[in-house]
Amino acid sequence: QVQLVESGGGLVQPGDSLRLSCAASGRTSSTYVMAWFRQAPGKEREFVARISATNDYTAYANSVKGRFTMSRDNAKNTVYLQMNSLKLEDTATYYCAANPTGIGSWQYWGQGTQVTVSS
Q1: pLDDT tens digits, 62-99
Q2: 3-state DSSP call for residue 48?
Q3: Nearest Cα residue to 79 out of 90, 69, 64
């Protein structure tokens, strides 16, 4: 069993930066593929970024490519999402997810952290 706890959300202005963290518990969590998703009010949850267990592969949604960077520190069982040049449309609840193999559905989810970009 893996538990995920996100933190780092908040209220920022357009153009600002924010770093989200997701702390994972469970002795094998460092071997899991990890991802960030987000869900804006009235919209479906959407993929934001993912990272391999070995930290050598990342993928991003086109809407965040070049602005967001996902990383992980397996010694701390933590993944991060560095968000730069934030836009109004980045406002959403951001969720961390984990998958043991990276194939199929994401098995574990955090409770989410709110990011609000407002002028």
Answers
A1: 999 999 999 999 999 999 999 999 999 999 999 999 99
A2: strand
A3: 69
- CA–CA separation, 58 vs 35, rounded Å? 9
Q: 50-57, long-range: CB within 8 Å, 24+ apart, which pairs?
A: 50/102, 51/79, 52/102, 53/102
The pLDDT tens digits of the residues spanning 7-29 come to 999 999 999 999 999 999 976 77
CB-based contact 98:106 (threshold 8 Å): yes
Report CA torsion sign: 95, 90, 44, 63. negative
Rounded Cα gap, residues 70 and 107, in angstroms: 19
Which amino acid is present at 35?
Answer: A
Say if residues 77 and 24 touch (Cβ distance below 8 Å): yes
DSSP label at 65? T
